[in-house]
Amino acid sequence: MKSSNVLRALTYTVLILGAASMIIPFLWMLSTALKTDAATFVLPPEIIPKNITLHNFIKVSQLMPIFRFFMNSLGVALTITVGQLIICSMGGFAFARIDFKGRNLIFLLYLGTLMVPSQVTLTPLFILMKYLGWINTYKALIIPSMFKIAFGTFLMKQFFMNVPKSIEEAAFLDGVGYFRLFKSIFVPLAKPALATLSIFSFMESWNNFLWPLIVTNDTLHMTLPLGLSVLQGRWETNWNLLMAGTVINVLPILIVYIFAQKYFIEGLTHTGIK
Amino acid sequence: MQKTVKRKRRLAAMLFLLPGFLGMLVFLFIPIGASFVLSFTEWDLLGDPKFIGAYNYIDLLSNEDFRSALQHTLTFIVGYLPSVIFLSLLIAILLNSKVRGIVAFRAIYFIPVVSSWVAVSMIWKWLLNPQYGVINYLLSLIGVQGPMWLYDPNWAMFAIIITSVWKDLGFVMVIFLAGLQGIPKFYYEAANIDGAGVIAKFRHITVPLLRPTTFFVLIISLINSFQVFDQVWIMTEGGPAGATSVIVEQIYKNAFSYYKMGVASAMSWVLFIIILTITVIQNRLQKRWIDYEI
């Protein structure tokens, strides 16, 4: 009995220490972002700043169009997400519900692309963007990412396959075609899967770094992560400014995460695809 | 009658698949092919690509930068993989043992996973700052003079590994937790009746039944580690003195700093071949690993 108490205490200690190590860096980011310049480099560090100030957020927005970066990130991520929801649910529906020749082959082709590391297409895609004149445009930020659909199509297919056959048989008897069947019955049924998919693609796009790094170099079209990395290059030592920028990058996704936790964790458990 | 139904079906399938397929064709399939062709050329984007056969691949063998990038990637993997798997398995097992607040714990460990790599790298750069960072301050409290971390070639990769393990722990832990919760309770109940201890239950039930999950996690993490880039680029840009230069960083530099499109493409195909090999081996081993009897 006694040894199981020790084990319990040990379990909680490790879990709480681990959880603390996950949260404290974020609290430290927030603390630094709210400090005055002078307080940033004080040792021992002030954990809760004596003078809390929003000065760093104001200064960041004066030095860089950080609000614009924010809106760019939001617009790009939302557009990619909506696009993927439409494309993946249509594709998933076809693979799950329509019997046609070559279906398995095409589906395998889709899945096969998951094996190809995204770096393989990096150079040709950059060349294509240059050739199309899309460098430093929203088109370059949005359109190629909108078609990273292999996983999403797979997810939607898995979901649609579980819908009972009787539903579509009844619909066909009423003379309903595939398109209305999809729009009026399957899409409304698929809300949980669509929620998972939208969380997943929003997060991917919001946090994406490498692709925006390649196709943008003007401040008008930069997304938040890219803007932040530029900020870091220019003000290497201004840690309170950098942390203010980081807060602006982390906060929105954390708020979404708090409200839609279930979908985040489910969505990512089923993937592991970068 | 039968024929028109079939035609209607084919037409419907085509319409539903067309938007996605066309997009994939232009932004994925053709670029994959183009990248393969480019890897046999020399091209700086200005003139026309020049066909040079397998020269880029042969050259990679003696390319010092690429070889050290491969080496650094392996160093990263050797440090990162066992740590992230051990720690996340430990946390998952503890969370699976009738503790309170499992939902809250799971949510907290997952926060770094949803944050961007840029944000995480920035936060850790600040924590690891040699002069004013919290980590070296804490070390100084116990009388240890902290290293220069990202500014020291001997410590920089270690710092990147710590950051990566910290960020990915929650993700791997959640997969392990799902695996653990998939193990039927009655195995443990039966073992309890037989009077098995904690260790015996772990060895004879948890370990064998968690094997598929562990295998999956191992492969996914291995594949992802070969593609490590964001944190490296933001924290060190491959430095100091090239100490953290990794494969993708070399691809990026060759393509977008030196404009050697052919070399970059060849490097990305080497990466692809590595990942393909891992996947093929995984498929072969999967059967052997996953067929288990208890």
TrEMBL record, chain A:
It comes from Vallitalea pronyensis. It holds the Pfam family BPD_transp_1. The keyword Transport applies. GO terms for biological process: transmembrane transport. It comes from the Bacteria. Belongs to the binding-protein-dependent transport system permease family. GO terms for cellular component: plasma membrane. It is found in: Cell membrane. Residues 70-260 form the ABC transmembrane type-1 domain. The chain crosses the membrane at residues 12-30, 69-95, 107-129, 141-160, 181-203, 239-260. Keywords: Cell membrane, Membrane, Transmembrane, Transmembrane helix, Transport. This is Carbohydrate ABC transporter permease. It is a multi-pass membrane protein.
UniProtKB/TrEMBL annotation, chain B:
GO terms for biological process: transmembrane transport. The chain crosses the membrane at residues 12-38, 74-95, 107-127, 155-178, 209-229, 261-281. It is found in: Cell membrane. It is a multi-pass membrane protein. Its main location: membrane. Pfam families: BPD_transp_1. Belongs to the binding-protein-dependent transport system permease family. One of its GO terms (cellular component) is plasma membrane. Gene3D superfamilies: MetI-like. This is Sugar ABC transporter permease. Coiled coil: none annotated. Keywords: Cell membrane, Membrane, Transmembrane, Transmembrane helix, Transport. The keyword Transport applies. Residues 70-282 form the ABC transmembrane type-1 domain. It comes from Vallitalea pronyensis. The keyword Transmembrane applies.
